[in-house]
Amino acid sequence: MMNLMDIDGYRPVIQNDAESGMFRGEIIDLNGGADFYTTDVAGLRQEGHKSLQVFLDMCREDRVEPRRTYSGDLTVHVAPELHAEIIAAARGEGQTVEAWIEAALQRRLAEQL
After folding, report:
1. Facing residues of 110 across strands?
2. What is the percent of the chain where pLDDT is above 90?
3. Residue 1 pLDDT exceeds 50
4. How far apart are CA 90 and CA 49, in angstroms?
């Protein structure tokens, strides 16, 4: 189970903060930080929305793009044995290693939703 929710097209990760006894949400994929706390599940969306609006207002004032961009390049180090198995599986399916890994990651993400 993923601890993600959607607030106006932005995704906060939700965790239980044992130290404070509260839920903590951190909105990811931003060019800065936006987090929020609440004591109950019902408050997550409300507090998340407030935090996001403050962040977006600041971005508008500073003329900053709120969303972080990604290059699409991802370096992953794996055990040599796994590397060999990935190459064999990709070639066995007639795919490049990159295409095979991308498809495997997409399948794994789909399982989480």
Report:
1. none
2. 82
3. no
4. 43
**Can you give the length of the chain in residues?**
113
Q: What is the DSSP string of 3-71?
A: -B--BTTBEEEEEEETTTTEEEEEEESBSS--EEEESSTHHHHHHHHHHHHHHHHHHHHHT--SB----
Residue whose pair of structure tokens reads 């996001």 in the numeric block: 52
Residue 16 and residue 23 in contact, taking contact as beta carbons nearer than 8 Å: yes
Look at residue 8 and tell me whether its pLDDT is greater than 60. Answer: yes
- Predicted TM-score (pTM) of the model is 0.74
Q: Are 56 and 37 in contact (CB under 8 A)?
A: no
Q: Is the dihedral of CA 59, 61, 62, 65 positive or negative?
A: positive
Q: Where are the domains of the chain?
A: 11-62, 80-112
Q: Tokens 């070639």 appear where?
A: 91
